[in-house]
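Review this fold:
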Amino acid sequence: MHQDKMSQWVFGIWTGTVLVFLFAPLFVVAIFSFNASEISVFPIKELTLKWYVQMFNNNAFKEALLNSLIVAGFTVVIATSLGIIAATGIRSYAGRFKGTARALGTMPMMVPRLILGIALLTFYNMLDTDLSLVTVIFGHVVIALPYVVLIVSARLVGFDDSLEEAARDLGAGTFTVLREITLPLLRPAIVGSALMSFTLSFDEVVVTFFTTGTANTLPMMIWSMLRFGMTPEINAVATLTLVVSMVLAFVGEMSIRKAQTKSAAAP
Protein backbone atom coordinates (compact mmCIF):
# COMPACT_ATOMS: atom_id res chain seq x y z
CA MET A 1 0.00 0.00 0.00
CA HIS A 2 2.81 2.40 0.96
CA GLN A 3 4.65 1.60 -2.28
CA ASP A 4 1.50 2.26 -4.31
CA LYS A 5 1.07 5.61 -2.61
CA MET A 6 4.67 6.55 -3.35
CA SER A 7 4.20 5.56 -7.00
CA GLN A 8 1.13 7.78 -7.22
CA TRP A 9 3.05 10.70 -5.76
CA VAL A 10 5.96 10.21 -8.16
CA PHE A 11 3.62 9.88 -11.12
CA GLY A 12 1.70 13.00 -10.05
CA ILE A 13 4.89 15.05 -9.67
CA TRP A 14 6.18 13.85 -13.02
CA THR A 15 2.87 14.67 -14.73
CA GLY A 16 2.84 18.14 -13.17
CA THR A 17 6.42 18.76 -14.30
CA VAL A 18 5.58 17.78 -17.88
CA LEU A 19 2.50 20.05 -17.90
CA VAL A 20 4.53 22.99 -16.56
CA PHE A 21 7.18 22.36 -19.23
CA LEU A 22 4.50 22.35 -21.95
CA PHE A 23 2.40 25.32 -20.84
CA ALA A 24 4.89 27.64 -19.10
CA PRO A 25 6.13 29.23 -22.38
CA LEU A 26 2.55 29.88 -23.47
CA PHE A 27 1.74 31.43 -20.10
CA VAL A 28 4.82 33.68 -20.32
CA VAL A 29 3.83 34.90 -23.80
CA ALA A 30 0.32 35.73 -22.54
CA ILE A 31 1.67 37.59 -19.48
CA PHE A 32 4.11 39.67 -21.52
CA SER A 33 1.31 40.68 -23.91
CA PHE A 34 -0.03 42.81 -21.02
CA ASN A 35 3.37 44.24 -20.10
CA ALA A 36 3.54 48.05 -20.40
CA SER A 37 7.26 47.90 -21.12
CA GLU A 38 8.52 47.18 -24.64
CA ILE A 39 11.12 44.85 -23.15
CA SER A 40 9.87 41.40 -22.20
CA VAL A 41 11.59 40.93 -18.84
CA PHE A 42 10.53 40.22 -15.28
CA PRO A 43 9.43 41.78 -13.00
CA ILE A 44 6.45 43.33 -14.75
CA LYS A 45 5.88 46.76 -13.24
CA GLU A 46 2.68 47.79 -15.00
CA LEU A 47 -0.10 46.02 -16.91
CA THR A 48 -1.73 47.50 -19.99
CA LEU A 49 -4.00 46.69 -22.93
CA LYS A 50 -2.27 49.11 -25.30
CA TRP A 51 -0.62 46.34 -27.31
CA TYR A 52 -4.01 44.81 -28.05
CA VAL A 53 -5.37 48.24 -29.04
CA GLN A 54 -2.33 48.77 -31.24
CA MET A 55 -2.81 45.32 -32.74
CA PHE A 56 -6.45 45.93 -33.68
CA ASN A 57 -5.54 49.36 -35.13
CA ASN A 58 -2.93 47.72 -37.36
CA ASN A 59 -4.31 47.39 -40.90
CA ALA A 60 -1.78 44.67 -41.74
CA PHE A 61 -3.05 42.63 -38.80
CA LYS A 62 -6.68 43.07 -39.87
CA GLU A 63 -5.85 41.96 -43.41
CA ALA A 64 -3.84 38.95 -42.20
CA LEU A 65 -6.61 37.94 -39.78
CA LEU A 66 -9.23 38.20 -42.53
CA ASN A 67 -7.06 36.11 -44.86
CA SER A 68 -6.61 33.46 -42.16
CA LEU A 69 -10.36 33.32 -41.55
CA ILE A 70 -11.07 33.05 -45.28
CA VAL A 71 -8.51 30.27 -45.75
CA ALA A 72 -9.66 28.40 -42.64
CA GLY A 73 -13.34 28.75 -43.62
CA PHE A 74 -12.86 27.33 -47.11
CA THR A 75 -10.57 24.63 -45.72
CA VAL A 76 -13.29 23.53 -43.28
CA VAL A 77 -15.95 23.32 -46.00
CA ILE A 78 -13.80 21.47 -48.56
CA ALA A 79 -11.91 19.17 -46.17
CA THR A 80 -14.99 18.24 -44.16
CA SER A 81 -17.09 17.53 -47.25
CA LEU A 82 -14.40 15.42 -48.92
CA GLY A 83 -13.56 13.68 -45.64
CA ILE A 84 -17.18 12.64 -45.03
CA ILE A 85 -17.46 11.32 -48.58
CA ALA A 86 -14.16 9.45 -48.27
CA ALA A 87 -14.95 7.92 -44.86
CA THR A 88 -18.45 6.79 -45.83
CA GLY A 89 -17.19 5.53 -49.19
CA ILE A 90 -14.48 3.47 -47.52
CA ARG A 91 -17.04 1.95 -45.14
CA SER A 92 -19.53 1.11 -47.88
CA TYR A 93 -17.45 0.21 -50.90
CA ALA A 94 -13.86 -0.63 -49.92
CA GLY A 95 -14.74 -4.19 -48.86
CA ARG A 96 -11.75 -6.13 -47.59
CA PHE A 97 -9.50 -3.23 -48.55
CA LYS A 98 -10.99 -0.89 -45.90
CA GLY A 99 -7.81 -0.87 -43.82
CA THR A 100 -5.62 -0.09 -46.83
CA ALA A 101 -7.96 2.62 -48.11
CA ARG A 102 -8.17 4.23 -44.67
CA ALA A 103 -4.37 4.13 -44.33
CA LEU A 104 -3.97 5.84 -47.70
CA GLY A 105 -6.57 8.45 -46.74
CA THR A 106 -4.71 9.35 -43.54
CA MET A 107 -1.17 9.08 -44.94
CA PRO A 108 -0.60 12.89 -45.28
CA MET A 109 -0.75 13.04 -41.46
CA MET A 110 2.52 11.08 -41.36
CA VAL A 111 4.35 13.24 -43.91
CA PRO A 112 6.47 16.06 -42.38
CA ARG A 113 5.02 19.49 -43.14
CA LEU A 114 8.30 20.60 -44.72
CA ILE A 115 8.19 17.75 -47.23
CA LEU A 116 4.50 18.38 -47.85
CA GLY A 117 5.14 22.06 -48.50
CA ILE A 118 7.96 21.30 -50.95
CA ALA A 119 5.78 18.72 -52.74
CA LEU A 120 2.88 21.17 -53.07
CA LEU A 121 5.17 23.94 -54.35
CA THR A 122 6.68 21.56 -56.92
CA PHE A 123 3.18 20.51 -58.00
CA TYR A 124 2.03 24.13 -58.40
CA ASN A 125 5.18 24.99 -60.36
CA MET A 126 4.59 22.01 -62.64
CA LEU A 127 1.08 23.32 -63.35
CA ASP A 128 2.46 26.87 -63.74
CA THR A 129 0.00 28.07 -61.08
CA ASP A 130 0.31 31.51 -59.51
CA LEU A 131 0.58 31.29 -55.73
CA SER A 132 -2.32 32.90 -53.87
CA LEU A 133 -4.78 32.23 -51.08
CA VAL A 134 -6.38 29.62 -53.34
CA THR A 135 -3.17 27.56 -53.40
CA VAL A 136 -2.91 27.99 -49.62
CA ILE A 137 -6.46 26.67 -49.21
CA PHE A 138 -5.76 23.53 -51.22
CA GLY A 139 -2.54 23.01 -49.26
CA HIS A 140 -4.45 23.25 -46.00
CA VAL A 141 -7.10 20.85 -47.31
CA VAL A 142 -4.35 18.27 -47.82
CA ILE A 143 -3.36 18.74 -44.16
CA ALA A 144 -6.88 18.70 -42.69
CA LEU A 145 -8.49 16.00 -44.84
CA PRO A 146 -6.81 13.00 -43.13
CA TYR A 147 -8.01 14.18 -39.72
CA VAL A 148 -11.59 14.39 -41.00
CA VAL A 149 -11.35 10.89 -42.47
CA LEU A 150 -9.94 9.54 -39.20
CA ILE A 151 -12.52 11.21 -36.94
CA VAL A 152 -15.54 10.33 -39.11
CA SER A 153 -14.26 6.76 -39.58
CA ALA A 154 -14.06 6.38 -35.79
CA ARG A 155 -17.74 7.32 -35.53
CA LEU A 156 -18.66 4.91 -38.33
CA VAL A 157 -17.17 1.98 -36.41
CA GLY A 158 -20.37 1.67 -34.37
CA PHE A 159 -22.71 2.74 -37.15
CA ASP A 160 -25.86 0.60 -37.46
CA ASP A 161 -26.25 -0.28 -41.14
CA SER A 162 -29.78 -1.59 -40.53
CA LEU A 163 -31.03 1.99 -40.12
CA GLU A 164 -30.03 2.86 -43.68
CA GLU A 165 -31.38 -0.46 -44.98
CA ALA A 166 -34.73 0.14 -43.26
CA ALA A 167 -34.95 3.62 -44.79
CA ARG A 168 -34.27 2.24 -48.26
CA ASP A 169 -36.88 -0.47 -47.76
CA LEU A 170 -39.39 2.29 -47.01
CA GLY A 171 -38.58 3.96 -50.33
CA ALA A 172 -35.97 6.55 -49.33
CA GLY A 173 -33.38 7.41 -51.96
CA THR A 174 -29.63 7.64 -51.43
CA PHE A 175 -29.66 11.42 -50.85
CA THR A 176 -32.59 11.16 -48.43
CA VAL A 177 -30.83 8.42 -46.45
CA LEU A 178 -27.69 10.53 -46.30
CA ARG A 179 -29.57 13.66 -45.19
CA GLU A 180 -32.02 12.06 -42.76
CA ILE A 181 -30.07 9.12 -41.34
CA THR A 182 -26.31 9.22 -41.93
CA LEU A 183 -25.43 12.89 -41.40
CA PRO A 184 -27.50 13.37 -38.19
CA LEU A 185 -25.81 10.33 -36.63
CA LEU A 186 -22.41 11.63 -37.72
CA ARG A 187 -23.05 15.17 -36.45
CA PRO A 188 -20.70 15.06 -33.39
CA ALA A 189 -17.87 13.70 -35.53
CA ILE A 190 -18.55 16.25 -38.27
CA VAL A 191 -18.52 19.15 -35.80
CA GLY A 192 -15.34 17.87 -34.17
CA SER A 193 -13.53 17.35 -37.48
CA ALA A 194 -14.66 20.76 -38.78
CA LEU A 195 -13.31 22.52 -35.69
CA MET A 196 -10.10 20.52 -35.90
CA SER A 197 -9.72 21.50 -39.56
CA PHE A 198 -10.24 25.17 -38.70
CA THR A 199 -7.60 25.01 -35.95
CA LEU A 200 -5.07 23.23 -38.16
CA SER A 201 -5.55 25.76 -40.96
CA PHE A 202 -5.60 28.83 -38.72
CA ASP A 203 -2.24 27.89 -37.13
CA GLU A 204 -0.39 26.50 -40.17
CA VAL A 205 2.95 28.13 -41.02
CA VAL A 206 5.18 25.73 -42.94
CA VAL A 207 2.81 24.72 -45.74
CA THR A 208 1.52 28.31 -45.95
CA PHE A 209 5.09 29.55 -46.38
CA PHE A 210 5.56 27.35 -49.47
CA THR A 211 2.13 27.92 -51.02
CA THR A 212 1.31 31.58 -50.38
CA GLY A 213 1.86 34.49 -52.73
CA THR A 214 1.77 38.13 -51.63
CA ALA A 215 -1.18 37.75 -49.22
CA ASN A 216 -0.23 37.19 -45.59
CA THR A 217 -2.06 35.00 -43.12
CA LEU A 218 -1.87 35.63 -39.37
CA PRO A 219 0.82 33.00 -38.63
CA MET A 220 2.89 34.30 -41.55
CA MET A 221 2.53 37.84 -40.22
CA ILE A 222 3.84 36.71 -36.82
CA TRP A 223 6.74 34.96 -38.55
CA SER A 224 7.65 38.09 -40.52
CA MET A 225 7.40 40.30 -37.42
CA LEU A 226 9.82 38.03 -35.55
CA ARG A 227 12.60 39.04 -37.94
CA PHE A 228 12.66 42.44 -36.25
CA GLY A 229 12.76 41.02 -32.73
CA MET A 230 10.29 39.94 -30.08
CA THR A 231 7.88 42.74 -29.18
CA PRO A 232 4.81 42.95 -26.92
CA GLU A 233 2.65 43.36 -30.03
CA ILE A 234 3.84 39.97 -31.26
CA ASN A 235 2.96 38.55 -27.85
CA ALA A 236 -0.53 40.03 -28.18
CA VAL A 237 -1.04 38.53 -31.66
CA ALA A 238 0.34 35.19 -30.50
CA THR A 239 -1.92 35.20 -27.42
CA LEU A 240 -5.01 35.93 -29.51
CA THR A 241 -4.11 33.11 -31.90
CA LEU A 242 -3.44 30.80 -28.96
CA VAL A 243 -6.80 31.54 -27.32
CA VAL A 244 -8.73 30.95 -30.55
CA SER A 245 -6.87 27.70 -31.20
CA MET A 246 -7.32 26.40 -27.65
CA VAL A 247 -11.05 27.16 -27.58
CA LEU A 248 -11.64 25.48 -30.94
CA ALA A 249 -9.44 22.52 -30.03
CA PHE A 250 -11.31 22.07 -26.74
CA VAL A 251 -14.73 22.18 -28.42
CA GLY A 252 -13.47 19.83 -31.13
CA GLU A 253 -12.09 17.39 -28.57
CA MET A 254 -15.41 17.34 -26.71
CA SER A 255 -17.25 16.61 -29.95
CA ILE A 256 -14.81 13.82 -30.82
CA ARG A 257 -15.21 12.25 -27.37
CA LYS A 258 -18.97 12.44 -27.74
CA ALA A 259 -18.70 10.65 -31.08
CA GLN A 260 -16.42 7.98 -29.62
CA THR A 261 -18.76 7.47 -26.67
CA LYS A 262 -21.68 6.93 -29.03
CA SER A 263 -19.60 4.47 -31.03
CA ALA A 264 -18.67 2.49 -27.92
CA ALA A 265 -22.27 2.45 -26.71
CA ALA A 266 -23.65 1.29 -30.03
CA PRO A 267 -24.65 -2.40 -30.15
